[in-house]
Design goal:
13 strands; 18% strand; binds iron/sulfur cluster; pyridoxal phosphate; metal-binding; 4Fe-4S
Length: 449
């Protein structure tokens, strides 16, 4: 950046560096021990930029970015916490700790929404195509193997299982050819989403090897290239001063010039992530390529369960030329009991936030659950024929015919996920239930074959 002697280098801290973070030294020893216990089970990674520029250490532990990146005791249930803490206190062997951590992880629903079994396609010979997920007809998700990490980790991460070094739990592919072959034979696919982890941790050259071939005429049917990223928050220097930032900008420009949509699906949780000079410079640079930045992120307790935070974040995004896109519901995995917000409360927060912003900021959908049958939005609480109900709709569905059909659940102010809800009006089942069961059975049978 202009005015700086040399660009800042990326410096990362993981569990074994907890004692080396100067700001943590000022916290009680007991708190650091809690962090060690939790990060034995769940991934932890933070970088100097987040520590120095995003966290207000005077507000710790309540600071939202501290909660977003540093492990908190409440993230493990007391029994799990004690099991690991006892081993650490006793100085147990590495292997014993690792086995205990593994057992706890497997109890935390590492792959919500049946990702492993239901969304992974196969080739003509029936081989599972690792690294690809194809859940909705028009969109393919691709997990490039070099992009299966992030510049820092979110404590609530729904893909945490990717980061704990357990191969069985990972989904990734290093094979650009696998992706390209799959897309070649699926003309119904119009959108490819590169996801992770964070594909923006990859070198531009890697990203290019996946993306550039899609500009060939045989991929005419691919209209949009989306890249899911939190680099705009956790390491905006990636787009401004990294040695291959220029090459990245040039790549995105070529894709846009070729007539395809480039959408950066930027993960934001709090307006503080938008406030630094470098974050704004990165947004500006990306927008100058013709890429569109769409903002999405989950509503999470301890971080952003406040309408004022969302209103300020959406308004700020619009000012910076970003399109507010989704408010998600925290997923049913990992430390969800610490972060989850009841669906009814989530809707109230969404509604109150919407009421505070101008029309341009009202483009965010939500609150939306990415459940196995589809993306289900909570539309509101109302009364129909004397019964208090929650109105829902599919934004995306395993069957496209379900999309936009309203349906109703019995009012329940404690439910935090779709499977906690019951159909309203004394109905036994959801309108989509039988069909979903059939789709699920067929997929699971294919996965086992
Ligand atoms: S940026 Fe996304 S994938 Fe990375 S840690 Fe956060 S939620 Fe997980």
């Amino acid at each position: 950046m202009k005015g700086q002697a040399s660009p800042p280098t990326f410096k990362v801290y993981t569990q074994r560096d907890l004692d080396r973070i100067p700001q943590l030294a000022a916290l009680p020893e007991a708190m650091r021990f809690e962090m060690k216990v939790v990060s034995t089970v769940l991934p932890f990674r933070v970088n100097q930029y987040v520590i120095d520029e995003l966290i207000d250490w005077r507000q710790v532990p309540a600071d939202p970015i501290f909660q977003l990146t540093f492990p908190q005791r409440g993230m493990l249930d007391p029994e799990h916490y004690e099991r690991i803490a006892a081993l650490l206190r006793a100085g147990a062997e590495k292997d014993e700790i690792a086995a205990a951590a593994d057992a706890v992880r497997h109890a935390l629903n590492p792959h919500p929404a049946d990702q492993m079994e239901m969304n992974m396609p196969r080739d003509e010979e029936g081989h599972r195509l690792d690294g690809i997920q194809h859940k909705y007809r028009e969109t393919v998700l691709f997990f490039p193997s070099q992009g299966q990490t992030c510049h820092a980790y979110c404590t609530f991460c729904f893909r945490w299982a990717q980061f704990v070094g357990d191969k069985e739990l990972r989904m990734a592919s290093s094979e650009a050819a696998v992706l390209h072959n799959y897309l070649r034979t699926h003309p119904e696919v119009t959108d490819v989403l590169f996801t992770g982890g964070d594909p923006m941790v990859m070198k531009t050259a890697h990203l290019q090897s996946y993306i550039e071939p899609l500009l060939a005429p045989e991929f005419e049917h691919i209209r949009s290239i989306r890249i899911g990223t939190k680099a705009l928050s956790f390491w905006p220097h990636r787009f401004v001063s990294a040695e291959d930032a220029e090459a990245l900008v040039a790549l995105l420009e070529r894709v846009v010039e070729a007539g395809k949509q480039v959408a950066l699906m930027a993960h934001y949780n709090h307006w503080k992530e938008l406030d630094t000079e470098v974050a704004q410079a990165a947004i500006h640079r990306l927008r100058s390529t013709g890429a569109v930045i769409r903002a999405q992120g989950p509503l999470v307790a301890h971080i952003n369960d406040d309408p004022a935070v969302w209103a300020r974040m959406w308004q700020k995004q619009v000012e910076l030329g970003i399109v507010p896109y989704y408010m998600f519901v925290e997923r049913d995995t990992g430390a969800r009991h610490y972060f989850e917000v009841p669906l009814v409360r989530a809707w109230e927060i969404y509604r109150e936030a919407m009421q505070q912003v101008s029309g341009l900021a009202r483009t965010a959908r939500g609150p939306s659950m990415s459940a196995s049958p589809g993306k289900v939005e909570i539309q509101g609480v109302t009364e129909v024929a004397g019964e208090k109900v929650i109105a829902l709709r599919f934004i995306q569905g395993r069957n496209p015919d379900w999309v936009q059909r309203p349906f109703f659940a019995r009012y329940d102010d404690q439910a935090t996920w779709l499977n906690h809800l019951k159909p309203a009006f004394g109905e036994e089942k959801w309108f989509w239930e039988d069909e979903y069961a059939a789709i699920r059975q067929a997929r699971l049978a294919a996965a086992r074959a």
